[in-house]
Amino acid sequence: MLDTDLPLAIDVVCDMLTGSVIREEDVDVERGAILEEIAMTEDDPGDCVHDLFAHTMFGDNPLGRPVLGTVDTVNALTADRIRRFYKKHYDPTHLVVACAGNIDHNKVVRQVRAAFEKAGAFKNLGIEPVAPRGGRRALRTAGRVELVGRRTEQAHVILGTPGLSRTDERRWALGVLNTALGGGMSSRLFQEVREKRGLAYSVYSYTSGFADCGLFGVYAGCRPSQVHDVLKI
C-alpha cells in the first residue's frame, strides 16, 4: 500500500471493525467451511498430535483448546452470539494498531482516533487501554504420557516441556538452543535422527511463547516400530 493511501486504509479497517453486519446466512456458510477444516485436521495425525500436546500441557485453559474449536462448539455458534461477543470485546480498549513504513507515529494516532470517534466506537474517551497480563501461568509439569491409537503408517511423537513467555529475557537464549537442536537441516536432531540413521523424515524442535507462559517441544514422525529408537536419541 502506498503511504498516501493510509487514510483510506484506516477508514476501511475501522469500518470493518465497527460496522460488520454478521448476517446469519454468512455465518452458516463459514460454519460449513470451518467444519470441513476440522474434518481435514482430524484426518492428519501430524496436526492432531500438536493439539493433544497443548491440551496435555494446558488442560481446559483456552490455550489448551484447538484453535478451530470442536464440531459441537462450531455448531452451537449463532450470528446473535457472535454479535454479542463482538460488541463486548472488539472495542478500541482491546485493540492494538500496528503500522510500518513511511509513516509518522503521531499522525497515525490522530487519524486512527478520528476514524474510531467518527464511527462512534469510543464509548468512554477517558478509559485506559487494557493492561497486558503479568505473572506466570501454572502448567502441568509432572511427567505424563498421552496416547491416541490410530491405524496409520506413521507414529507422530512430541516430547515437550514448559517453555518461556514471550517477554522472558531468556527467550533469546532459548531461540539459539532451538535453532541448534532442531531448527533446520543442519540441526542436531535432523542430522542424528534423519541423516545418520534414517529413522524419520520430519523431525524438529519448536518454541511457543505466550503472555505468561510458553512451550518447548520436539516432534518426530516415524514408523511405529522405530519410536523407541527415536525417543532414545
TrEMBL record:
What molecular functions are annotated in GO for this chain? Answer: metal ion binding
The residues covered by the Peptidase M16 C-terminal domain are: 77-232
User: Which SUPFAM superfamilies did the record assign?
Assistant: LuxS/MPP-like metallohydrolase
Q: Name one Pfam family in it.
A: Peptidase_M16_C
Every Peptidase M16 N-terminal domain range: 2-70
Family statement: Belongs to the peptidase M16 family.
Q: What is the name of this protein? A: M16 family peptidase
- Lineage of the native species? Bacteria, Bacillati, Actinomycetota, Actinomycetes, Kitasatosporales
